[in-house]
Amino acid sequence: EAQVTQNPRYLITVTGKKLTVTCSQNMNHEYMSWYRQDPGLGLRQIYYSMNVEVTDKGDVPEGYKVSRKEKRNFPLILESPSPNQTSLYFCASSSTGRGEQYFGPGTRLTVT
Amino acid sequence: QKEVEQNSGPLSVPEGAIASLNCTYSDRGSQSFFWYRQYSGKSPELIMSIYSNGDKEDGRFTAQLNKASQYVSLLIRDSQPSDSATYLCPLLNSGGSNYKLTFGKGTLLTVNP
User: Fold this and answer.
1) Are the C-beta atoms of A59 and A48 separated by less than 8 Å?
2) B103, A105: Cβ pair inside 8 Å?
3) Distance between start and end Cα atoms, chain B
4) Is pLDDT above 90 for B101?
5) CB contact under 8 A, A43 and B32
6) From CA A18, how far away is CA A77, in angstroms rounded?
7) I need a labelling partner for B26 at 20 to 30 A (CA). Which of A14, A18, A51, A111 fits?
8) pLDDT at site B98
9) Per residue in A6-18, pLDDT tens?
10) What are phi and psi of B88, to 5 degrees?
11) B38-47 pLDDT tens trace
């Protein structure tokens, strides 16, 4: 089954404790992206990647890191999480890069 | 900053009616337009993409694009309670990378039985 998976789905952590949210797709897509979704603000792009080793900032990259060492994986790293990073995070992938994206199920992160 | 604005919600229609959702966008150079649906607590899913002026139909859904007016709409005919969701119309960055999507806040649609 074609899918984008994220882990963990739910995470409660404390300020400053480094964490990684994994994202994997099995569709051989070149393009992958991370979004956060907050009430009243909608979906905002954090980072995106056009191919292995090629990444670029989205609208809200501060406080986040990404890497793309393999085509299928695109982890999101929070080196020192803060409460304002409490949000719902979505990973997405696309074969065309033109906007038709497949979204993962989401990761709900709470930073206390 | 390229932006997309959606018609203010929430929108409530009776079952069987036509639901009309609208988006206007600030980037005259955009060439690609999309409609996503997001059920509460779920991830967005693509329901329509449209690249040329005019109408594109897919089952009960019709997307309408007018690039000159910078306007894209989605009509849902014979609305069903299962259509109740938030509808999103992201703007695709027409710049170099051609991958950045900018989302509006979405329009919440409720279809009442």
Assistant:
1) no
2) no
3) 40
4) no
5) no
6) 8
7) A51
8) 52
9) 999 999 999 999 9
10) -120, 140
11) 999 999 999 9
Q: What six digits make up the tokens of B50?
A: 């449209």
- Reading the block at residue B106, the tokens are 């979405």
Q: Which residues, in sequence order, are CB contacts of A62 under 8 Å at separation 6+?
A: none
- The two structure tokens encoding residue B73: 């709409």
Question: What proportion of chain B, given as a percentage, has pLDDT over 70?
Answer: 90
Distance of CA A82 to the CA centre of its chain: 17
Q: Shortest CA distance to A32 belongs to which of A9, A58, A11?
A: A58
Determine whether B52 is exposed, middle or buried from the number of CB atoms within 10 Å of its CB (0-12, 13-18, 19+): exposed
Query: Looking at the complex, does the CB of residue B90 fall below 8 Å from at least one CB of chain A?
Result: yes
Number of C-beta neighbours around residue B105 at 10 A = 17
Residue B99 is predicted with a pLDDT of 66
The answer, for A38 touching chain B at a CB cutoff of 8 Å, is: no
Q: List all residues of chain B from 2 to 31 with a beta carbon under 8 Å from chain A.
A: none
Nearest-by-CA chain B residue for A4: B43
Q: For residue A23, which residues of chain B lie inside 8 Å, CB to CB?
A: none
Q: Which positions in chain A touch B92 (Cβ < 8 Å)?
A: 98-99
Rounded Cα distance, A74 and A22, in Å = 7
What is the model's pLDDT at position B97? 55
Q: pLDDT digits over A51-94, tens only?
A: 898 898 988 999 999 999 999 999 999 999 999 999 999 999 99
